[in-house]
Amino acid sequence: MKQNYYDIDIEKIPNHIAIIMDGNGRWAKSKFMPRTYGHKVGVETIRKIVKECSRLGVKYLTLYAFSTENWKRPQEEVSALMGLLVTYLKNELDELHKNNVRILTIGDTSKLPSVCVDELEKSIEKTKDNMGVTLSLALNYGSRDDIKKAVREISKDVSDGKISVEDIDDEMISKHLYTKNIIDPDLVIRTSGEQRLSNFLLWEIAYSEFYFTDIHWPDFDEENLQKAIYSYQKRDRRFGAVK
Predict the structure, then answer these.
(1) Model pTM greater than 0.70?
(2) Which residue among the candidates 22, 24, 186, 224 is catalytic per the annotation?
(3) Does the annotation count 22 as an active-site position?
(4) What digits encode the pLDDT tens for the residues 48-57?
């Protein structure tokens, strides 16, 4: 059984943790290995973190797996990432299903290779009724593209006379985003020392708490996750109000 490294309050676990998994390439370089090796080891970290979130009672875990900007990377690296996605789903699906994990995606997955789309659809279908942690994979995802898509859809509804401009509110916008079936993140974690959001959940993180760590993603483990949660629990979340 996993231990608690920090005196975290199990009653105040964040409902939704979103993670920008950064540093695979830099970690690999520090080991004099190719970037693809870092991504491969990073998949092992995903396995550990999903299990720990499940154990702690986190309801939603969103992982920034592949952004709309990541297509700019070398073709070899992109192909390796797509291959790792397929391998992860094939190898982990039964275990995820056994542990009551529900799989979702956010982003335009139609642009992914067909083999990736097939495995994702199979995983989503198999786990759709699970009631444990919801693992949401952000794939070909960019928040600005998502907001732009929402604006276009809402504008068309106005143009078609289905709604009026006065009907547009926060709730309506949220319902047109990829995250419409997911609650907003309580805690956003970014590994590897960078302190920016990189086009990730810009609408949804309006009142999220941020946690940045210098640890590269392949070295991020259960203890590091608990440290982030412990830091989160020490903060005073006022959502713009005064206590």
Answers:
(1) yes
(2) 22
(3) yes
(4) 999 999 999 9
> pLDDT at residue 237 above 60?
yes
Judged against a pLDDT cut of 80, whether residue 9 lies above it is answered with yes
Is residue 70 flagged as an active site residue?
yes
Please count the CA atoms within 13 angstroms of the CA of 168 that sit on its side-chain side.
14
Cα dihedral 113, 37, 22, 115, rounded to 10, equals 10
Catalytically annotated residue among 4, 15, 70, 214: 70
**CA gap 147, 72 in Å, rounded:** 21
Nearest to 133 by CA among 226, 225, 53, 195: 53
Other beta carbons within 10 Å of 13 = 18
- Look up residue 131 and give its DSSP letter: -
Residues 24-38 have pLDDT tens digits of 999 999 999 999 999
Residue 189's SS3 state is: strand
Say how many CA atoms lie within 13 Å of 217 toward its Cβ.
Answer: 28
The conformational region for residue 222 under phi > 0 = left, psi -120 to 50 = alpha, else beta, is alpha
> Which residue do the tokens 């190719």 mark?
34
Host H or E run for residue 218: none
CA separation (Å) from 98 to 51, 59, 101, 126, 146?
Answer: 12, 16, 8, 11, 32
- Cβ burial, residue 148 (10 Å; 0-12/13-18/19+): exposed
* Statement: residue 1 has pLDDT above 70: no
Please check whether residue 188 is in contact with residue 18, taking contact to mean a CB–CB distance below 8 angstroms: yes
CA-nearest of 171, 110, 121, 185 to 145 is 110
